[in-house]
């Protein structure tokens, strides 16, 4: 079996897949796509993934993109199925948490914060009302996910797909809070989520997945 993993450092979607590959112990060849070099638009990559996005995997010639589809696929190709473990109900709950991260925490909270603080032309001030609304919603989402913890992780004592989907977004909250004081995100993580994030960061494979350009 040969699996090639096309990854972009800093992509939250791609980070999910890297954590999952490591957690499952699936051997893979890492190919880093450089956005500054526009690698994703090069013909060889577009031939593999016409949407030119990471994450993308190629498994024995089968190309797959969309991080949630990849996570479910990875779960199916290993015998223990540890990304979505448990009963149909427990597995459905993990899928629900992953979708809730995308729909609520990511789309309604992080996207407007990122737009206001990183995407506006230089010199254009952020829309404070939009920022404040997103921050308020984010605080609610963080409490919500804190209440969804079931032990050390979201679905018990071992991490699952739900944790790997949520973690990169929490890492973004931490990073924006540290890099942009005007975001007022520093200190927004409630203790259950801060402690959960520390448990993810203590996983033996975590360090290798950390975006290298975030170290400075
Ligand atoms: N829904 C997709 C989103 C993937 C995505 O947006 N990837 C971005 C990086 S964060 C990308 O590759 N952008 C490059 C491009 O669109 O050209 C997933 O879950 O995998």
What does this protein look like?
The structure is a single chain. The chain has eight helices and four strands. The chain is of the alpha+beta class and 216 residues long. It folds into two domains: 3-77, Glutaredoxin, CATH 3.40.30; 88-210, Glutathione S-transferase Yfyf (Class Pi), Chain A, domain 2. It has a four-stranded mixed β-sheet with strand order 2-1-3-4, covered by helices on one side. Helix 4 runs parallel beside helix 6. The mean pLDDT is 97. The structure holds glutathione (GSH). Glutathione binds next to loops. Residues 8, 11, 13, 40, 52-55, 66-67 line the site of glutathione.
Q: Helices and strands in order, then pairings?
A:
Blueprint: E1 3-7, H1 12-24, E2 29-32, H2 43-48, E3 56-59, E4 62-65, H3 67-77, H4 88-119, H5 128-147, H6 161-179, H7 191-201, H8 206-209
Parallel strand pairs: 1-2
Antiparallel strand pairs: 1-3, 3-4
Helix pairs in contact: 1-3, 1-6, 4-5, 4-6
